[in-house]
Amino acid sequence: MTDPRPKYTQLIKAEARRLGFMSCGVSRAEFLEEEAPRLERWLRENMHGEMGYMENHFDKRLDPRLLVDGAKSVISLTLNYFPAEEQKDTGSPKISKYAYGRDYHFVIKDKLKQLLHFIHEEIGEVGGRAFVDSAPVLDRAWATRSGLGWIGKNSNLISKKVGSFFFIAELVVDLDLEYDDPITTNHCGSCTACIDTCPTQAIVEPMVVDGSRCISYFTIELKDNIPTEFEGKFDDWMFGCDICQDVCPWNRFSKPHNEPLFDPHPDLLNMSKKDWEEITEDVFREIFRKSAVKRTKFKGLKRNIEFLKEKSGNS
């Protein structure tokens, strides 16, 4: 009898490409032995700050078989979000590029559902679940195992061909597939651009980011006031931060995405510093109606903008 795994794997990868995913790799669903002590140390040293949810489901984060009964394969996928244009006013508060358009959770979840439906149609009854950054899955670890890239010194997944401006998602399925070879070489070499330019020194050592010092953490996750010790260190970021990716030499290979849902609201790129400082709740609702920026709420974004103003007022 012919081994069906190569055929099934090629079918799935071809459909992933058709759905707009940039790359697709497959790895065996098993316990992440190497990652376990790293995650344990990261939590023990409180690098997750107030992100209490990171402490939940420790075992499930390390073993996808606890998330899907009989799981055999982790299908890792990437989706490009690098924009064709960026904010025009270089002196205005900045938004991370991933949040320019529609909230990626919804965009990717929809594509994953379509991929799972395709698997059911073409292969048969396959048990599986889709994961997009909102469940206890170590997506970068699985993407590395699936041959999609290596973990850079800024802890992001990096690809030689396209850099790092992409989302990662997974389908965990109870189907045997052909597994890809992991990328075992770290191509960062002696480069330390990301470590050197992080204004809050959040990259405490290669591949270890203290989340509780990261600008993204302060501007999105932290609900309290931003500590005054970080005044003047945000480089005008009001939601998220792209510094460690912007300076990465591999991102010279980034190409604009072709996902219309990631295109920004027409007004977003043209807003001036004054526009942002005077933003009203109505404007916030209109521009970020279906955006990931809603996560910080109007109150949170205003807090971040005020924090940046305090910096310029003190200088």
From TrEMBL:
InterPro entries, sorted: 4Fe4S_Fe-S-bd, 4Fe4S_Fe_S_CS, QueG, QueG_DUF1730
Binding site for [4Fe-4S] cluster 1: C188, C191, C194, C248
Principal subcellular localization: cytoplasm
Binding residues annotated for tRNA, in chain numbering: K223, K299
EC class: oxidoreductase
Domain 4Fe-4S ferredoxin-type: 179-208
Its EC number(s): 1.17.99.6
GO MF terms, alphabetically ordered: 4 iron, 4 sulfur cluster binding; cobalamin binding; epoxyqueuosine reductase activity; metal ion binding
Gene Ontology cellular component list: cytoplasm
UniProt: cob(II)alamin binding residues: R61, D133, N154, L157, I168, S216, C241, D242
Positions annotated to bind [4Fe-4S] cluster 2: C198, C214, C241, C244
Pathway annotation from the record: tRNA modification; tRNA-queuosine biosynthesis
Cofactor: cob(II)alamin; [4Fe-4S] cluster
Active site: D133 (proton donor)
GO aspect biological process, one term: tRNA queuosine(34) biosynthetic process
Function noted in UniProt: Catalyzes the conversion of epoxyqueuosine (oQ) to queuosine (Q), which is a hypermodified base found in the wobble positions of tRNA(Asp), tRNA(Asn), tRNA(His) and tRNA(Tyr).
Assembly and interaction partners: Monomer.
Similarity annotation: Belongs to the QueG family.
Protein's recorded name: Epoxyqueuosine reductase
Organism this protein belongs to: Sinomicrobium weinanense
